[in-house]
Amino acid sequence: LPDVTLHNAPRMVDFTRLGEAMFMALGEEGSFTERFVEKRTEAMMVSLESSPIAMAVITYMQNNHMGYDNGTFKDLLDTLSIYHTPGEPWPKSPRGLADALRRHLAGLKVVGVEVLFDEVRHNDGFHVSLRKIKNDIKKNVVDIDAQSTRDTPETPESAIRVHCEPHSPTY
């Protein structure tokens, strides 16, 4: 364990260091850190694919390269509703949307979507922005890890399979 040095260590440094030591002792190919980041990325992708809101945001951003600039959560919820598949869970309020976006911040960033929350309440409510960022899945996972211990190159749009199709809202 004293001989183990980590470069670009992700979160849970002690766990990663122990994993690297085990990899060395077992003579495994590659590095534990690389495999750990790969598995974390896979888990984030599964989480995004299972979230109707995350998929709606990704689809929206693929169709609207300019993003969504400083609008209310209510307006964004209305905008995203065309991507809602009937029968899937969907936020009933702007606050529900904000909570869902907060849960998927890291995963959305990994696939190239940055969610910016305006912390100041305006007359019409809280505002949010969505914008595309350059992303390299491995780099963004490490960046997210680096940010979380303190508290970008391009990936193809097909990094996550989008199963959402626009639907006309039914009222």
What attributes does this structure have?
single chain; 171 residues; mainly alpha; 7 helices; 3 strands; 47% helix; elongated; disordered C terminus
Describe, in short, the structure shown.
This protein has 7 helices and 3 strands.
What does this structure look like?
This protein has helices spanning 13-26, 32-49, 52-63, 73-80, 94-103, 105-110, 137-149, and strands spanning 68-72, 113-117, 127-132. It has 171 residues and is mostly helical. The radius of gyration is 19 Å and the shape is elongated. The termini are far apart. Mean pLDDT is 79; it is low at 140-171.
Describe the secondary structure blueprint for this structure:
Blueprint (H helix, E strand, L loop, with lengths): L12 H14 L5 H18 L2 H12 L4 E5 H8 L13 H10 L1 H6 L2 E5 L9 E6 L4 H13 L22
Antiparallel strand pairs: 1-3, 2-3
Helix pairs in contact: 2-7, 4-5
- Percent strand equals 5-15%
Strand runs, count: 3
The residue-averaged pLDDT reads 79
Label the overall shape: elongated
Characterize the main sheet. Answer: 3 strands, antiparallel
Task: Flag low-confidence runs.
Answer: 140-171
User: What is the helix tally?
Assistant: 7
**Helicity, as a percent range:** 40-55%
C-alpha-based Rg, rounded: 19 Å
N- to C-terminal distance: 61 Å
Q: State the strand order across the main sheet.
A: 1-3-2
State the secondary-structure class. Answer: mainly alpha
Order of helices and strands: HHHEHHHEEH
